[in-house]
Write a structure and sequence with these properties.
The chain is an alpha+beta fold. It contains four helices and five strands. The protein has one domain. Strands 1, 2, 3, 4 and 5 form a five-stranded mixed β-sheet that branches. The chain is elongated.
């Protein structure tokens, strides 16, 4: 009888140990899942923040083309416009940073915006910035898009298609007339000493100009 009781006690102890091991494994697995989900959520949140920051830079790039003023600056690249001195104006007569991109490098400008642009800039853009730091669309206040990443933008005039029916006619660019399309890039890159991913966004927009004096 005593032997039987000892065997039962041993069996109960063995079952308890097995259950303890199983519960421990389940707890460890659950902790791993929670940790993984936390990392995924944090990465997704960071990506959304960077997307919003880069999107804000695209909005500034497009905003600088609004309005009827400075049409010549919106059609002809100028290194002086691609500098931190080119701030927004309260009268909305803003100037964009329009880059001259060498034709052979235009495809890379569109498909690989992270490639350094030093060799891609044409003569008219050689002495200017290749990326304009984001400052927002409020002329009275400079806005910081992100605390851990530098945010910047650039744009260039899209080449006209030979088969397009809306191409500007000969001489229209000099007089500031016609329909023109622009390619815009924006980036959010980690500030010095901060680790993190790079993020790039693109947009395009079109403007119709009626002439420099209109």
């Amino acid at each position: 009888m005593r032997n039987t009781m000892k065997r039962q006690e041993g069996a109960v102890l063995l079952v308890a140990l097995v259950m303890l091991v199983v519960i421990t494994l389940l707890a460890v697995g659950s902790m791993r899942n929670v940790t993984l989900e936390t990392r995924i959520t944090a990465n997704r949140a960071q990506t959304v923040q960077l997307e919003n920051a880069a999107d804000a830079a695209l909005r500034e790039a497009e905003f600088r083309y609004y309005g009827p003023g400075n049409i010549a600056d919106k059609l002809t690249p100028s290194a002086s416009n691609c500098s931190t001195a080119n701030t927004l104006r309260s009268n909305n007569l803003n100037k964009p940073c329009l880059l001259e991109i060498v034709e052979s490098k235009l495809q890379d400008f569109v498909e690989k915006p992270w490639i350094p642009l030093d060799s891609a800039l044409g003569e008219l853009s050689q002495d200017g910035l290749s990326w304009m730091p984001y400052r927002g669309t409020d002329a009275a206040n400079t806005t910081s898009a992100n605390s851990t990443h530098d945010v910047a933008w650039n744009s260039t005039l899209a080449p006209a298609s030979k088969t397009s029916a809306i191409n500007a006619e000969y001489g229209d660019m000099q007089s500031g007339k016609g329909t023109y399309f622009y390619l815009n890039n924006a980036k959010a890159t980690p500030k010095a000493g901060i680790a993190g991913p790079d993020l790039y966004l693109q947009s395009s927009h079109g403007n119709i100009y009626l002439g420099i004096n209109n």
